[in-house]
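Ticket reopened. Same input as before:
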Amino acid sequence: MIKQWFKSGEPWVWLNAAAVSANLILVVGLFTLIAVRGLGHFWPAQVVEYGYKDKDGIATVIVGEVVDTVVLSAQQAKDANYEILAGGDSLEQRLIKTGNRDTTGMDFHWIEQQRISGETYPADMLVVERREWGNFYGRLVAVKEQGKTIASGAQAWPIAEQKLQTALELFEEIDKMQQKDVGAINYALERLRLKQKKLQLKNQWDDNAKQELAAQEAEYKQQYQSLQGELAKLNEKIALDSIVVKEASGKEVEIPMSKTVRIYQPNEMNVFAKILHYGEKVVEFVSDDPREANTEGGIFPAIFGTVMMVMVMAVIVTPLGVVAAVYMREYAKQGFLTRLIRIAVNNLAGVPSIVYGVFGLGFFVYILGGNIDRLFFPESLPAPVFGTPGLLWSSLTLALLTLPVVIVSTEEGLSRIPKAIREGSLALGATKAETLWRTILPMASPAIMTGLILAVARAAGEVAPLMLVGVVKLAPTLPLDGNFPYMHFDRKFMHLGFHIYDVGFQSPNVEAARPLVYSTALLLVLVIIGLNMTAISIRNHLREKYRALDN
Amino acid sequence: MADITHIQKNMSSTLTPAGYYQRWRLIKDTLARHTVVVGGLGIIGAIVLIFFYLLYAVFPLFLPAHSETVASYSVPEKSLGKTLLLAEEEQNEVGVRFTDQGKAVFFAVKTGKTLLNESIALPENTQVTSFAQGDFANGIVVYGLSDGRAVVVSHQYTLSYPNNVRVITPSIDYPLGKEPLLIDNKGKALEKIAFKKGDDVSTFVAKTADQRMILTSFEKKSAMFGEEPTLERIDAELKTPAKDVAYILINKDHNNLYLASSTGLLSYFDIGDKAAPVLKQQINVLEAGSKITSMDFLNGDLSVLVGDSHGVISQWSMIRDAKNQSAMQKLRFFKASENPIIAINPEARRKGFIAVDSTGEVGIYYTTSERELIKESVANAAPVALALSPRANSFLLEGANNQIHVWQVENEHPEISIKSLWQKVWYESHSEPEYIWQSSSASNDFEPKMSLTPLVFGTLKAAFYAMLIATPLALMGAIYTAYFMAPAMRLYVKPGIELMGALPTVILGFLAGLWLAPMVELNLAALFSLLMFLPLSVMLFAYCWQRFLPKDYKEKVPEGWDAAILVPVLLLGAWLSVQLSIPLENLFFNGNMRSWFSHELGIGYDQRNALIVGLAMGFAVIPTIFSIAEDAIFSVPKHLTIGSLALGATPWQTMVRVVLLTASPGIFSAIMIGLGRAIGETMIVLMATGNTPVMDLSVFQGMRTLSANIGVEMPESEVDSTHYRVLFLAALVLFMFTFVFNTLAEVIRQRLRQKYSSL
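Engineering reply: fixed in the latest deploy. New output:
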């Protein structure tokens, strides 16, 4: 019976079906994993207080958020030199984010569940998000102004919240001034320096020029002085307030308000407060600059850099791809040459992305960029302008990388346009170029769009070549800002994909960075899936349309 | 069309406004055509450009070295004595000649004009009896005198830029003081001498006129309270017959001493304890009948180069064997000439050297790549002195006819040869020839080891495991989706799986490295149990479904929706397998599979290993293979399958005998493209392996791939250096790999398309 069943081949069909199901489970499982981990990060976790007796029998109190749990079997625990207390057949370990890195040296601790003696969630547990040293967990003791206690005990909390609000406003003002105004002056001074060098190189550095530049420089310096004065005043003001927090060991720590981003008591929050908190965190994530070596704060520069790079790339890749596809479909005779081009396109699609990176670095950056510097920017040598990895070269490299995507998609679109339309246009006396421009390309535009979207999706997720041609872990300035010429093609930029690699693998504090990496990954996946879905739906729509046209 | 253009041309010749317009239209048309043609051919241009640019960057690695004569002049200040040593400074502008009369003559390298003529402070009533170079890099030399004393001199150069012109001012200095140091307590003449100066220790070894070998060292003892440091002197005598000693070498760490007789007996002493030198080994380094005619260290002082009277230069190094015993062993030799090798000079920064034979033929060699780079006849008779410049881009040779010959050398990448890239190389102080990739080292003493073999091995290993996981899943999925699945379900499944391909690999790599790797490490048994029991549980379910389920229920599930039913079955099967793995692990693997592997089988376990890479990269490759294979199977003409079914074949028989056979080229090309992708993938391997370039087939060990290696090292490599070019070579190798796979795949696909259109 079984033999016959096997002979019919049915089991193999089922096995094949199982492969499809397995693939589907993998896809869905992966997206779920990223989504759950990525979304969970922003939810305010309960802060737990454990009574704990460590290996040497010393009793301590551990306060923090439970981040991870791992269960080891008895044998695994034994092999890893853990001792299992009486009666257990497995060992549960918990990873606790205990924060307070400045006082304890470590902000993550592994503890064993079997040694926990008590577990409470005190309502007055305070979480302080700081600009340095990570989170602080403890109980609020007092609020101070100029070193004098102005509130303590139960009144401390509302006053602290109020003081934080003013401090945050001040901080924003200072930050804006430093980033924008001081940054602009520095940029202008640098341009003056280059201008002077340029004039010297051209032998036009005479007294006139000297005077003019000196006057400008003096003006900028004066502006700078006055800004510095204002900044000093603001800094004085923000340094006034502080809060005093008592950590689990009983030690009291004073945290200045200027170093505080957020304070909250998660154990006391209700669902609405938590949702509000969640929303705030999400907004911070997508709109703020990173803090603490990229492990905290937002990823705005990475989003911005990715978008900029992809946009420049799109501008480059579209015409190239469309022209190539038009040639293959409309101009070339189908034969050896088109076959050769198809092979070339397929190879372009199949060459490993890192090879594009190597090519981009060697050819675009060092050869093209180096020569541009020599010809157009002699004044800034030996410091390179375009002869170093940057936005333009990244876009160009990725344009080359995504070219096949645009070609293939455009070609498909062109091949679906019925011949009658071309012939009709030619018969009415239009030249081939006019036919192309007025009828064919407009009809193929959704296909071009599809190709472009797919190219953008591919480029947004590509990291390997970018590591060589322009991405950095932390860019001090965005590629687009208020300083002339506004769009800085030569600048290095941050990128979502590289951010994931860098924060996940190069960060000094991987544990702290991990949730942020999941969130970044989720954002990237959402963007790319969204783009792909759009492309697919445009394509399907297009196919429907042409089917109607054919009939 | 041609007619129309003709008419339009006629119209335009009348030059009415409409005619202008027509002409403009034509011009536009021509312009557009040219642009489009250029653009289209540009695609071929792009791929050719990438290839040739990579080739262009790699090419200099394999260019032969080149040398040419620059000048030739008679020895400056010939009357001041015979040359003992020639040397050049860093910029190849100033040379120096130390003579047996205790003079240092500095001269311009280009012209031979004397720049400075210094007398070394030698005590009166003494003669120079021996001379040696103390330290190549710092320009230190030592004169041994007839009264048992020695003078240490260094030649130095200061750079200054008056009026933006570089001026090099030579001078001499006495690093151990102007007063000669007493080396032999008995005051006998020093017949042979060797010297090394360290930061705190200075070591002299000398052969005295009464045939003793003495070891004298001075150690700087830093005194407290900022007083002048005092020199502590240690004397020792080497218990060895001194009569035959012709060559003495002390290494720069001041703990090894090599003595050699001209008959070929090399003695190695451990002089770590200066008071009690120990003879460790004596070995004959020559073939019978030859004599040692020159000897020197290779840069780094880890191996000794011995030149003999038959023109053979051999490299000997201290090798630790399996029993941790060290002994001198011959690593390699060069047959440089038929005549005796008169002088050997090592390069200052690389593992190359220059040698000259008694006929004045100069050769430049590189040890690790075993290349003979330059061979030129420079002087016609027995040369007196040879000097290689610190940057190894120029050399001086004083011939017997009192002529100094200046040559320029262009030798950028001597360390690369086909052998050093792809074959085993015996590196200094390694116990055997090995494949090693280690592109940077802490100092010049250790050379970069650039064997691409471990990287290619790692690339293929990663690709192999990825394909092992991806191919069955993707092909089986493609077969089912294209042939058995209900069209309504296919509409969603196909793009769903293809969407996987759009997932950035950096995310897969990150999940593999930070989530999958620790999880697999903890639950290794569960993973194996999944691989074993999942297919079984599917079979079991299928059997029960078809055999025991009442027909009414079966028919409720429309045909081609089996995959949907199997999703819960698989999930349940997975859960069961994981549950089952715990008792199985306890039963067969002592409760911990990982330690069982390492204790019972001796297989080590890396957390980020080939298994993880296989899983993650397999995941990345599945959509590529799936999509192309599915297309190939789906486009098999329907009349073929219908015919087969009509003849009574079961669907599975039709699948295997007709459809798969017809679509096999397409499936092959799918696998090729998948393989190409697996070979070139960077981020996953970068994040999911330990990136250690080991050559180990074990599934539990990591690897380093070509692509990850480029990603890691490219940003730090110096432009146009050997390392940079070797990385380009790695990229070129990757390019070639994928080019072959992709071209093959595309050609097959084009064939297939033609075949289908004829069917």
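The radius of gyration of chain A is 31 Å. Chain A touches chain B through 104 residues (CB under 8 Å). Please confirm and we'll close it.
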